[in-house]
Every structure is written in structure tokens, then in C-alpha cells.
Design a protein that fits this description.
mainly alpha, Arp2/3 complex 21 kDa subunit ARPC3, 7 helices, 0% strand
Amino acid sequence: MAKTTPAAIWLMRAIFVGLALVIMFFHLLPLDTTPRRWAPPDLLLAVALAWTARRADFVPPLLIAAVMLLADLLFQRPPGLWALLVLLACEFIRSRLPASRETPFLGEWFAVSVVIIAIALLNRVILGMLAVEQAHIALILVQVIMTIAAYPVVVLLSQSVFGVRRLSPADAETLGARL
């Protein structure tokens, strides 16, 4: 049975914010002072997409925008661009939700992979048009590949640790308009 009470939904929203803050904290820790030759996966993006694909009511658009804008400010990225792209990606995943409820995980993973590639390309093109200094393309490609590879692990941990599961059709009817 799905967690449908408003208190449970607000608790999961708070868990999402807490998880995002933990990811940002560990991303900002100065564990190595030399520049990296590889880019780690964007776990914040993977978590936002996984939670949106699994339970869209746990991550409303305003919450995603606020978390990603905070990440933009903390990671010293151009404020708002990555937040907007991630918000649009999550809304695209959310719009596909009723049609993709019965798709297998590989279909979901493929759709999320295409979305990750699309927002990385859009980010690169927009920053290029605005003449903003960017990381080397190889680092961006490594980060995109690592994020796509980390998505199944994020989904597994979200499902097993936090209980973020896909709704069954009966549970979806119970929630009604909240999806």
C-alpha cells in the first residue's frame, strides 16, 4: 500500500531536502586539493529524476527548483540555468508518468538517460552561446556517463532505504488528483 497520508508525503519531501543537503555537503568537502581528471556523477540530478519518475508527489516543482537553485549557488554555477533545465527535465518525466507506469525499469532508465544527455547538451549550448567559461567536453561526457550509470544504484537505494516505489495502478487511483 502506498503512503498516501499528507504527513507521509511531507515527511518524504523533508527527506528529499535532507538528502539533497547531504549530497551538496559531501560535494563541497575539500577531500582532494588537486584538480580531478574525471567528474563524479551528478547524484543530485539522479535523485531528483528517480524520485520524480517513482513518486512525483514527493518532489513538487517548487521544491526541485529551490533545491537546484541552492545547488547552483553553492557550486558556483550560473544561477538558475541548471535549476531550470533540471526542473524542465523533471516536468517532462512527470508528464510521461501515467504512460510509463507499466514500463519495465530498462525503459525508465533509457528515458532518463535521454533526458540527462539532453539537459547536459542544452546546458553546454546555452553556456557556449553566452560565452561562459566551461569545463572540457571530456569531463562533461564522463559526468553524463557516470550519472547514467549511477541511476540504477540511486533507484535501488531510494526504493530500499527510503521506500520510494512506483505506484501500482490501484494506488494511483487512490491518490487521484495528487499525481
